[in-house]
Amino acid sequence: MSETSENDYDVVVVGGGPCGSTVSTLVAKQGHRVLLLERESFPRYQIGESLLPATVHGVCRLLGVTEELEKAAFMVKRGGTFRWGSNPEPWTFAFSSSPQFAGPSSTAYQVERMRFDKILLDNARANGVDVREESPVSDVVEDAGGRVTGVVWQDAKGVRHETSARIVVDASGNGSRIHTRTGGSRQYSEFFRNVALFGYFRGGKRLPAPNRGNILAVAFSSGWFWYIPLTDELTSVGVVLMPEALDRVRGDRAEALLSLVQECPMIAEFLADAERVTEGPYGKVRVRKDYSYIQDAFFKPGLVLAGDAACFIDPVFSSGVHLATYSGLLAARSINTTLRGDLPEQRCFEEFEARYRQEYARFHDFLVAFYDMHQDEQSYFWRAKKVTAGLGSDLESFVELVGGGSSGEGALVSSDRTAAFQELADFVHRPVDESGEDRDLLRTSLARSVSREGVRIQVQAALGENADEYVPVREGGLVPSADGMHWAPPVPRES
Ligand SMILES: Cc1cc2nc3c(=O)[nH]c(=O)nc-3n(C[C@H](O)[C@H](O)[C@H](O)COP(=O)(O)OP(=O)(O)OC[C@H]3O[C@@H](n4cnc5c(N)ncnc54)[C@H](O)[C@@H]3O)c2cc1C
């Protein structure tokens, strides 16, 4: 059966993961007609369960799903606990160590992706996106000049459609082939060529409060384990194997996972009284090649790649959903600006690509240093400061990076300073410690934020540079518009 759709759209988005839902919602909110085509029927399984504050309090706030996420009662994550590097003892970082993630924005969630992704997709629908599930896209359509003008897809009844759009977004993740239509190819990292093996357990131990919701990452001789508490009972456990250990995933996967657990004492101890889930969507032990890659072009006329379709980086800092949703926001700005006719398409998508590449590069460059197991955590924090050119302490720079906030994007950190002011007020009104210990006012997040702002202004004054987000990230670049949903040329500075 074949049918040509009578209905054409401003934008067609391929894929209903976090990236597709983000970009489609933020474009539809501007009044544009958006069709989202998703191959699967939701809820569907996906890996990538540990989120960052920049996603939860930044992009999810813009999408308007904050209350839905609260209602879902996902496990609250305050930071990460690592047995990693030369320190034989586990060490922990808290997102609250950075003034960027003050008050309530100092946490993120561990999510069952089946539930999280459905919340975002339903929200896209509620915001006017025409969402079609069980509707795989097989190809894009190009005009004689090579511009992408639409997509070919099949609906749930097997009817073939060809739908045109002014812009097509490939948000189909790592698996589909649409990215090849940019004319470029994926460049695979020489460094991150790992394979992940993962499953789910009931009854695993928890870290002591207040860190019971933290992600736990434990390095051992063949690679490293993640241990993500999804609920009080359910834990996601996966091992990322170095290339030398790849033959361990051949044969029975469940046996391989259990035997690798026994080689990692800390994870074996956490799982001592636990049982592997063997039924339902969590019953399978899965393998994913998680080679890091980056596409050599993120767009061509009429087509833009975002989320995993454009690039993927090793999961040790749980950056995947952050990169997917942040790139969704950046792509939405470019699309909204192009559709409104404010600026040429090429310029808008160059801005998208420059910013997305920059965020990817920060994680990539830091992760290369993080895989050097001969260093301790202080050295990793120092490295984060170098990679991000952070103005705060080494630890603050590290937390800003792994919390998803080092781009300096106001949209990714909570604009709500009420909690920080409350923290300061509580502090000032608290009775003096009976032990006579000094009350360290400078430790409150607002005070740290103010002192950091002071440093920033001093740097600006000294260098004559504005470190603000309203200054482009590159020469000739654009800045977010006042509404945050478009790009605008920077306002020239007075000399
Ligand atoms: C081992 C491992 C562990 C990870 N751990 C984490 C973590 O802890 N935290 C984290 O943030 N990230 C993690 N990630 C990364 C995370 O899984 C991804 O970065 C994230 O899901 C990307 O989102 P996306 O929207 O770009 O793509 P996806 O989530 O892959 O969504 C793409 C959607 O497109 C659909 N689709 C595909 N092809 C088509 C087609 N032809 N037509 C229509 N629809 C199509 C798919 O069905 C899917 O729903 C991990 C990844 C790996 C491999």
For the sheet with most strands, the description reads: 8 strands, mixed
Helix content percent band: 25-40%
CATH class descriptor name of the domain at 9-73 and 112-189 and 293-363: Alpha Beta
At CATH level 2, the architecture of the domain at 9-73 and 112-189 and 293-363 is 3-Layer(bba) Sandwich
What's the average pLDDT?
87
Q: How many β-strand runs? A: 23
Protein name: FAD-dependent oxidoreductase
Family: Belongs to the flavin-dependent halogenase family. Bacterial tryptophan halogenase subfamily.
Organism: Actinomadura harenae
InterPro entries: FAD/NAD-bd_sf (IPR036188), Flavin-dep_Halogenase_NPB (IPR050816), Flavin_halogenase (IPR006905)
Overview of the structural elements:
The strands form five sheets. Strands 1, 2, 7, 8, 9, 10, 19 and 20 form an eight-stranded mixed beta sheet that branches. Strands 4, 5, 12, 13, 14, 15, 16 and 17 form an eight-stranded mixed beta sheet that branches. Strand 13 (215-220) and strand 14 form a beta hairpin. Among the domains are: 9-73 and 112-189 and 293-363, FAD/NAD(P)-binding domain; 195-289, D-Amino Acid Oxidase, Chain A, domain 2 (2-Layer Sandwich). By secondary structure, it is of the alpha+beta class. The chain has helices spanning 18-28, 53-63, 66-72, 113-126, 253-262, 265-270, 320-340, 345-370, 377-388, 394-402, 418-429, 445-463, and strands at 9-14, 34-37, 75-77, 79-83, 91-94, 108-110, 130-132, 137-142, 148-154, 160-170, 186-188, 195-202, 215-220, 223-229, 234-241, 275-276, 286-289, 293-295, 299-300, 303-305, 311-312, 479-480, 487-488. The chain is built from twelve helices and 23 strands. Flavin-adenine dinucleotide is lined by residues 14-20, 37-40, 46-51, 136-137, 171-173, 175-176, 196, 238, 288, 290, 307-308, 315, 318, 320-322, 324.
